[in-house]
Amino acid sequence: MNGEEDVVGRLVGAAGAREPLPDELKERWSAHFRGELGAALRRRTRRRLAVFSACAAAAIAVVVWIRLPTQDVLVARIVDVSGEAWRGDEPIAVAGTIAAGDEVRTSGSGRIAAVYRGVDLRCDVDTAVRMREEEIELLRGSLYVDAPQGAGRVRVTTPYGVVSHVGTQFMVTVQPALLVAAVRQGRIVVETDGAAHEFTAERTAVHVSVADGHVTSIDMARHDGPWAWVNRIAPTPSFDGRPASAVLDWYAHETGRVVRYVDDRTQRAADINLLQGISDLAADEVPGVITAITRLNVTLIDDGATIEVRRRSERE
User: What is the pTM of this model?
Assistant: First the structure.
């Protein structure tokens, strides 16, 4: 025993025997001790349960992440197919869907029409695109975009530059070492080599070429020529019960032409003349069909740029 313990022993001996604690005080202290011990045990149990729950939740999350496949983000819907076309290695069919990251290809005789974020898309023959949530990558061939006012902005990326638009009809073509863009309505922006070039279709369409970083543009017709393939895959709405004027407006929109009525009486006649039994009509068939089934003559003038409509006389 060291000196410190010796001193404590002598002090305890000098104090004499301690008086026993009153029963009431012993019971109070015992109850207090039991209460504190119970609370401590409950806190430790809650901590263990919390740790166990967190570990279990983490384990479940890992299992779900490993076992559940990620859900595809659908970005487009197919509305028409002509010839052969594929999404990856699978043939494309009408009403099929395209997910972000999918590559879509057409054969040498295939074309497709699709709706992408509220915008009408068409792919020409021998075209390949990769669809993304915010942009379309044109790998080869030609892509046509018809974006109504208010639709989301579409960016078309290519190896030679980026083409975007503001409420317009435009076409983008990728050839070896060459990017060609054409705007028929509205405005497009062509970005290449860190510079942005803006082009607006006013009285004519505009043809833009990008080669070796050089950007050039010339005026072009809004109809036929490079635009001709677009009409061949145009989705056709049902015209049954629609007025002739609505069908002519659709035809003008699809072909880049302008409708001109020779007088107000002719336009009123087109507004009240309803087409019956017409459900599937290609754009190029419109002038002939309306001329055949109504008393309206529809002809193309001004080198095909204008759709002239006049009423036939009783003797015609």
Answer: 0.76
